[in-house]
Write a structure and sequence with these properties.
The protein is an alpha/beta fold. Helix content is 47%, strand content 12%.
Length: 287
């Protein structure tokens, strides 16, 4: 399949105020794509937009909270109205918490799933509706939907159960839609980065009841530009899953085939990374 020319093809990106979302927006704009930037922090969005405009790209900012269904639809509608028919959407907004699964309240579980999964579903639903309005004889592809999942979508990570579950939901949604929308010439891809050097981990520390050291001790973080380049490659030449670490992908595939091996690896990681004062005793939430 020949690479797709992206110039003039609009993309809408949630969680675009920083990290992977911002890096992808800048990369897409450099490739000639008009970009709609969505996130809660309007000032951060304007900063990203100014970088794009300074390089001659086109960007519009649309403050939104993906935990609100109407915001997701408004974001997509405004993006299409200001930039023209959307070629692509990247559902990227999300956050994490480091806490024992049973210590998290129902409200905390619901909040994470609402942002990470429901926000993705609502954004995709709105985007697909726009893509389906394109004439049936539109040269394929009629659109490209991307969901930023995680390598943790393939394994239940201790003290990250809610996050892992939300990312698995995104992964399964993308896989199902990949087949359901293929007859309509709409591509669907899931993105599976490993730990990335962004605000994500700073926010995770602030959102967590206490730091267990599992995330802050991560020394193998990738730069967000690495993920952005992989996403841009996928937009040019669509594929179902996008990974930014082949060893991680193969390791998780092996762990899926041999669950006991995965359990051994996870147990070893916990033993060597969790803070010494939390290796034993209760992991109940701090008051």
């Amino acid at each position: 399949m020949a690479e797709l020319e992206l110039t003039g093809r609009p993309i809408a990106i949630t969680g675009a105020s920083s990290g992977i979302g911002a890096a992808t927006a800048i990369a897409c704009a450099r490739a000639g794509m008009p970009v709609a930037l969505g996130a809660r922090r309007a000032d951060k969005l304007e900063h990203v937009a100014s970088i794009i405009r300074a390089s001659g790209g086109k960007a519009v900012t649309i403050p939104c909270d993906v935990a609100c269904e109407s915001d997701c639809f408004t974001f997509v509608d405004r993006a299409a109205a200001e930039l023209g028919p959307l070629h692509a959407v990247l559902a990227n907004a999300g956050y994490g918490v480091e806490a024992a699964a049973l210590d998290m309240t129902d409200a905390e579980w619901e909040s994470m799933l609402r942002t990470n999964f429901w926000g993705t579903l609502w954004t995709i639903r709105a985007a697909a509706a726009h893509m389906r309005r394109k004439p049936a004889d539109t040269a394929p592809p009629r659109g490209h939907i991307l969901a930023c999942s995680s390598c943790l979508s393939k394994i239940g990570a201790p003290y990250h159960a809610a996050y892992s579950a939300s990312k698995a939901c995104q992964d399964h949604l993308a896989r199902a839609l990949r087949h359901e929308l293929a007859p309509e010439h709409i591509h669907v891809s899931s993105i599976h980065p490993i730990g990335t050097s962004t605000e994500f981990f700073d926010q995770l520390e602030r959102n967590s009841p206490r730091s267990l050291g599992l995330s802050s001790a991560n020394s193998s973080l990738q730069p967000p530009d690495r993920v952005a380049r992989a996403i841009l490659d996928c937009l040019r030449k669509p594929r179902g899953e996008v990974w930014t670490s082949t060893p991680t992908r193969l390791g998780l595939a092996l762990g899926t085939a041999f669950p006991s091996l995965a359990d051994w690896g996870v147990a070893r990681y916990i033993k060597t990374h969790i803070k010494p004062n939390l290796k034993s005793g209760s992991h109940n939430r701090a008051p």
